[in-house]
Structures
1.
Amino acid sequence: MKIAMIGAGFVSQAVARLAIAHGHEVMVSNSREPKTLFSLGYGLGCRTGTAEDAAVFGEVVLVAVPLSAIGDLPAAALAGKIVMDANNYYPQRDGQIPALDARETTTSQMLARELPDARIVKAFNAIEARDLVKDARPAGASDRRALPVAGDDAEAKRIVIALIEQLGYDAVDAGALEDSWRFERDKPAYCIPFDPEGLRKALAAAERDVEVPRERR
Ligand SMILES: NC(=O)c1ccc[n+]([C@@H]2O[C@H](COP(=O)([O-])OP(=O)(O)OC[C@H]3O[C@@H](n4cnc5c(N)ncnc54)[C@H](OP(=O)(O)O)[C@@H]3O)[C@@H](O)[C@H]2O)c1
């Protein structure tokens, strides 16, 4: 499959490594000229391009940028594309976003507003980038981790689930984009290793107004 990354940071590099190891064609991109990714592309063994190039190239496109940058994405080129949304909200980086602070929306619903014609699936946001390659395991491994996904497009979600399962994780369907708050930052399911049953329990235990920073779990 052709998998593109918008963003060339920690998350995109880790997902790119896994995808390349499983035989996918990969392109990474950032907000600057592709020449700024020359060494990265060489090191990973993948193509590089602009965000627009990545949107055109990918059958599945990972968006892994600061949440504050989602208004700058190539929305027209992403129309109809399956978009995996790895973004999280960190006010110290992204600024205060009142609709998120008031729990009126989710980060993925915000992305969906920016990309109204993309098929968005929340994925890869609830695992630390540094764990992504290290913790990947083949299907059936006793210590295989589960990762949550959410989305409104059933076929897109099915394709992303199959990809996650190929890349080394069990996938747990956490519902629609409006339900994806259950695995946003500081919810019980956020960035903690779980098997599928443990992840389902953590998702069910989430309370919309309650943040549980990891150091207090
Ligand atoms: N790090 C983690 O452990 C982790 C885990 C799960 C989820 N997340 C979330 O995933 C997202 C990415 O995290 P990260 O750690 O990978 O961030 P990062 O290392 O800071 O990388 C962000 C990337 O986005 C690019 N970028 C910024 N604005 C862009 C734009 N308008 N168009 C295209 N590319 C743009 C940056 O490149 P240029 O500035 O050069 O364009 C950079 O390559 C964040 O929302 C983060 O909260 C992070």
2.
Amino acid sequence: MEKLILETNKINKYFHDPVTNQVLKEVSFSMKQREFVSVVGKSGCGKSTLLYILSTMDTEYEGDLILDGVSMQGKSDEELSRVRNEKIGFVFQFHYLLPEFSVLQNVMMPGLKLAKHSAQEVESNAIDRLKSLGIDHLAAKRASQISGGEKQRVAIARALINNPLIIMGDEPTGNLDHKNSDIVFDIFHQLAEETGQSLLIVTHDHDFASRTDRIIEMDDGRIVNH
Ligand SMILES: Nc1ncnc2c1ncn2[C@@H]1O[C@H](COP(=O)(O)OP(=O)(O)O)[C@@H](O)[C@H]1O
Ligand SMILES: [Mg+2]
């Protein structure tokens, strides 16, 4: 039996501005190690809000989130930040690389922040990641000087630097052409297969979603099918 990496129990989320609006309704699901899951649903149905909660960045919600067997209820900001750095990697539609820093420095950053390994080890891990994604030749380039598809691969390398249990993506291929979307899909697929990492990827791309292990469909704040 593969272990559960992530579980949610009846998550409710409200925004109060300008009026109270419930944007997540009784969201319960779980993910196993090695699972590649996509989340689909119309714009505004709550996908990004859900990812913020699952990634521990938003703590204003009802219900329980359990990551790697541990409930996130009552955790301090420091504890949550540690969980985030250690167990979760993120890839967003807009890469958020620091443009003035080199590709290598960008990839190393979360590793230096976690401070679990020496800077030398982090650097050598970062180079390994770049190699496995086929972009080690870009290491010394500034992040502002590479293409969109390359940036997204750098963002993936950065998400992987701390060897997370789960990689979460909010429309990571939303800004890419078909060829580069395919490259990103193949990288994700390979991660699940080879390193047993779990992937939870929000996507608008039904072709991408149909190739994942499982599709979670959301409608108006609820999971309607998974
Ligand atoms: N900070 C906020 N304040 C108030 N309402 C918000 C806020 N962020 C998102 N919403 C609302 O919550 C709903 C879900 O948004 P979101 O999670 O971004 O949807 P999706 O990612 O599926 O497009 C939308 O109705 C949106 O307008
Ligand atoms: Mg969104």
3.
Amino acid sequence: MTRQKGTNNQDVKRQNKLLILKMIATGNGLSRVDIANTTGLTKMTVGNLISELLEEHLISEKSYDTEYETENKYGRRPVTFSVSDQSPCTLGILIKRELCQLIIGDLSGTILDSITYTYESLGNAMELLDLLYEGYLLLQSRTRRKIIYIGISSVGPIDTSKGIILNPPFFYGIHDLEITDYFTKKTGLPTYLINDANAGALAEKLYGMMGNVKDYIYLHIMNGIGIGIIINDVLFEGSTGQSGELGHTSINYAGPKCDCGNQGCLELYANVHAMRESICEYRSQFPESPLSSMEKPIWEDIVKAANTGDSLAKMVLAEYCSYLSHALISVLKILNISTIIAGYTNPGRGTFIEEVLQTKLSNALLFQNFGTITVKHSFFDDNAPLIGSISFINNKIFNGELPI
Ligand SMILES: [Zn+2]
């Protein structure tokens, strides 16, 4: 009995230590008093655990500016803490259809170095793996920090439990790629895989705007549509990590057949190609629109024009949002979630997409006694899945699933 109690005490101590590490890593200059007040732990316990974290070089004391001291005669500014520049890091990898990115990031979500490789096509899976391994070697040679994990955020569908990229549509025929096995064997580092939208959801939770929001959906709408679902502060990944494939839910049971085998999938209607076709069809009615004179407007052109009030852009993007909201309404209703955070490339500061989605979803759910629907733009613009490649590893560390 005594022994078991001792083990439990050790567990509690470890959990408290990880909680403090997480607060320091995701907070902004916290002091011992801040941490004690927030956690409810005694100042002595906080002090002891912070001493251990300092000794392990996971955190360091923040130097405070002298200006503050001269202005404030009545007290010293409390010592605050941040993640140590000697602490270990994670190599994060983002795999998309047109590019892959590699980053080195620490527990605070700070990106220390990065490489991007773009491609129009890939010959086979080995070409992709060679490229990623080359990037790993290059980043490793440029850093003095220790890399202890690899996190891979990828287009889906994937199987997280087995670390396999299954069969993403339009991905140059690459399928059943055992990517975590490959990296573990090549580098000796434990490697984990996550769906890109799920990674984005965790990036927002740890380092973005969603730290205090318990339930929300991260919606990624670039080159495919996916969602990451956070319920009660925890990512819902499903049995094999394939949750959130919103783009392949049907919005028309009699619609055309999709590559995934389903009929009338959302992505068949809500995509840049379809918006381009609408622009072609209506451009003669909107000669003043900048889109009318473009041979092949891309996503950024359409979003930028809509945000500056262009009628043609607003029309086609509103149609895109209509399809999107049809699929989203079902999800919001089933899960009773009322906050969405949208990630996509937004050249400028406009929020046309967020406003249209918020209005459409609010109107549809008006009679459901739902709370107010909120749709915000991602803190990371379109980069949440990239930051997510290190966020999901850091989340495992803070939860005690992975040792540090
Ligand atoms: Zn489909």
